[in-house]
């Protein structure tokens, strides 16, 4: 028989669950990413509320939502996944499969501790329900959009979208009407294109994207080949991104920076690329990204999607031409971003 204390706990938990969730649905209906994560956060709060009455829950919560102390023993104060798991998002392992070739996964221990997971089509659609996702950059950005469309759409619809998406030097727009999701790709191969996007296009728009992914550098490396100039251009992007965030009456976009891939010099398909796009130049360009205040770790607006680390892990067998990598790499990039969105949205509540 359920004790009176347990019954009272269940009633209180229902209040904790449904009242805030109703308020969240009212106030956060514009930002579905935030509402989805709010629901997860409130569910966790209910679990914590019930834990005195269900002895098995504390152990389950500790195993599923909190990281152990770095020394290997539990910390005296729990550290939530929303603050502790972000540094581990890129810690994926690669393996070979006879059926699919190279594939990736989070280590089981890390997946269970932080709750990282590949999202299904339904889960991704629920997370992005009603959201506007904008990806601006070069061919790498197109590959990320393709990975997103392959997740959100059925295979036939995703395949039908590819010719328009990969139309040379052009923008692209797609929608998922059932979920109210809009996906925009903006062709922006140079940093000046990104700065203009912030200072002109988005500033004049009646609404800003809920999720904004930016990336550039390959065209600059090939056509300008000057890391200091690239850094100066990144500083302008950073200032423009910060100026967009500051006056907004609504939460700013979730911003991500798409890092540069590992370059396999001997596979590059032109002499100019082999001459200018080498390992030394890549390292100098990566340093500029780290030093120009763009990334979250340096107080900047963008979380890094570390394509360089992921392409290094997958290896040159995943590279089609020494610069562009296969779909499995960008599937990993996409799921790192989606898992980061869940964590980041919880922090905004």
SSE pattern, N- to C-terminal: HHHHEEHHEHHEEHEHHEHHEHH
**Amino-to-carboxy terminus distance:** 37 Å
Beta-strand content estimate: 5-15%
How many DSSP-defined strands? 8
The structural class is alpha/beta
What is the CATH fold-level name of the largest domain? Answer: Rossmann fold
- Could you list the spans in which at least 5 consecutive residues all have pLDDT below 50? 1-6, 44-81
What keyword list fits this structure?
349 residues; alpha/beta; Rossmann fold; two-stranded antiparallel sheet; disordered N terminus
Would you give an account of this structure?
GO terms for molecular function: acetyltransferase activity. It comes from Eleusine coracana subsp. coracana. Its main location: membrane. The chain crosses the membrane at residues 6-26, 33-54. This is Pmr5/Cas1p GDSL/SGNH-like acyl-esterase family protein. The protein is globular. The strands form 2 sheets. Strands 4-5-3-6-7-8 form a 6-stranded mixed beta sheet, with helices on one face. Strands 1-2 form a two-stranded antiparallel sheet. Strand 1 (93-97) and strand 2 form a beta hairpin. Helix 2 crosses helix 15 (327-347). It is built from 15 helices and 8 strands. 37% of the residues are buried. The chain has 349 residues and is of the alpha/beta class. It folds into 2 domains: 4-79; 96-347, SGNH hydrolase (Rossmann fold), CATH 3.40.50.1110. Mean pLDDT is 82; it is low at 1-6 and 44-81. Helix content is 52%, strand content 11%.
